[in-house]
Amino acid sequence: MSAILKVEGLGKRFGGLAALSDVHFEAEEGQITGLIGPNGAGKTTCFNLITGTLAASAGRVMFRGENIAGLPPHRVVERGLARTFQSATTFPTASVRENIVRGALLRHQVGTLASIIGGGSARDAVRAAEETVVDVMDALELTAYADREAGTLAYGHQKRLGVAIGLATRPALLLLDEPAAGLNPEEVDRFGSMLTTLQQRFHLSVLIVEHHMRLIMRICDHIVVLHHGEKIAEGSPGMVQKDPRVIEAYLGAEHHVE
Amino acid sequence: MSDTSVTSPPKRAGLGSLGFALCVALLALVPWFTGSVFHFHIAIMVCLGAMAAAGLATIAWVGQLSLAHGAFVGIGAYTCVLLVTRLDMPFLVGLPAAAVFSGAVAYIIGTPLLRLRGVYFVLITFALNELFRLVMLEFPSVSGGSSGIAGIPKISLFGWELRDQSQVYVFTLLMLAAVMALLWTIRRGPLGRWFSAVEENMALAESSGIPTARTQNMAFVIGSGIAGFTGAIMAHYIGFISPVTFAFQLSVSYVIILVVGGRLALAGPLVGALFLVPLPEFLRSAQEYQHIIYGVVLIIVLRFLPAGLTALPGKLSQWRRSGE
Ligand SMILES: Nc1ncnc2c1ncn2[C@@H]1O[C@H](COP(=O)(O)OP(=O)(O)OP(=O)(O)O)[C@@H](O)[C@H]1O
Ligand SMILES: [Mg+2]
Known about the structure:
The structure holds 2 protein chains of 2 kinds.
Chain A: E1 3-14, E2 17-28, E3 32-36, H1 43-50, E4 58-63, E5 66-67, H2 73-78, E6 81-83, H3 96-104, H4 112-117, H5 120-139, H6 155-168, E7 173-177, H7 185-201, E8 205-209, H8 213-219, E9 222-227, E10 230-235, H9 237-242, H10 244-252
Parallel strand pairs in A: 3-8, 3-9, 6-7, 7-8
Antiparallel strand pairs in A: 1-2, 1-4, 4-5, 9-10
Helix pairs in contact in A: 3-5, 3-6, 5-6
Chain B: H1 15-34, H2 37-60, H3 69-86, H4 91-113, H5 119-138, H6 140-143, E1 156-157, E2 160-161, H7 165-188, H8 190-200, H9 202-207, H10 212-238, H11 248-261, H12 268-276, H13 278-282, H14 290-304, H15 312-323
Antiparallel strand pairs in B: 1-2
Helix pairs in contact in B: 1-2, 2-7, 2-10, 2-11, 2-12, 3-4, 3-5, 3-10, 4-10, 7-8, 8-10, 11-12, 11-14
The structure holds adenosine-5'-triphosphate and magnesium ion.
């Protein structure tokens, strides 16, 4: 086992607020790592720092042995680290298929001139991207909605589409920010199974933020717990669940643990 | 016209767009039916308006609105005119040079400016348009100052001068077709996908591997290059340019043409120009009220058809359906 992602001393200040301070953790290759914590714990901020959406105030992000902190997001994805967003996860007026094509084009790029004046290579790129999409739509059970406008989908489907766009970029590590938010318990279970299947099929490592504890405990190999921007615990689901600091953090935040 | 919207590309190129193409083709032939020089003139101006607005549309497709578009038309006009009159270059060298030079200026200023979004970009481009006019007035030896440059030679292709309006019209029509074909290709290809991704959800686009800053700059360069291209033809057709020709009123009229036609539709600039350019020309006595007329049309369209006139057929069938 080796770590695909190593977060070292990561920190972020927003003015006076330390949204994240000196956070260290690793995500193992081929595993599902959970990142949990009460609302405002700094989970999304952590994702934003890892993917270059925000500039870190301190620390390093080692991805496959390379420090990617400071790279713009599109360079991070190019290296095989994709992410989904907690909200506004789609291109709302484009079709589901078109949404995914836009992610898939990353692996089928053409030169500047060809992209302007068209021609064979541009057409081939789009066709190849469209082929990838078929596979991804199938894996996320979105094929039936291929021609629907993304903004008209149910919330849960939009979240799934967000995952599909990320997956279309062919990542080695996929960061998911509350992908099961807004789903009912039955759908959450379905999503969990879908995710483990995806992981096998696309040889993924996953780092997931979720508030559905039952899902997290079921699918994660390893869990990191944040509270007030600091890491307060990490370990196997069994260990984390029993950790008094974790229980206190969640009770203190009056968060319902299903 | 369902195929003209970004989101539902090629497949539904149905009867609607065929009908639209037919209408446009018939309209394009009108000057020959009437044989009127005045109609040829209007038709040329419609083509030039549509062409410049198509450049502006390219920039709008990445979600930016440039109020410096008139200045880029001016940069192209001056580039071509100066090359032709001062350096004795043929028009067919000056024309592409105008597009390239306008595009190059856009590239240089675009890199820092496009970090600004929304109204901030609009304001800074507005200021730049004024700057262009003032700087040009400061250098009368280049720009002709406030009296401008008159007696610009007519468009000439390989030594063949386009003396008749009808000849200029054919040339302009062909150039417009070429510009539209280029934009059609871009929209169907990977770059067009990037453009709409950036316009719709910048953060998601960037995180999906799209270099959003470079993509916006490409749209700005292509759009402003088209503006310069238009300016060159315009200058040699009208025969006179001055810094005032390209003052911000020109930019505003392109914005109105685009918004009235449809900001995100491929046919938007054409529809907008077909509708708005002839309007003040026909209302001869009302010519000084052009801006008021444009303003009123703009308000009406924004109120009832925020996606522009190109959305009208869709809206009509929607109303009909809900009326049943
Ligand atoms: N751009 C920002 N500017 C200022 N403060 C911010 C910004 N983004 C986040 N914060 C603050 O940083 C803290 C951590 O927020 P973050 O969104 O990372 O939490 P989270 O763990 O994702 O919470 P949730 O479970 O509610 O999504 C919060 O106090 C939040 O208000
Ligand atoms: Mg969050």
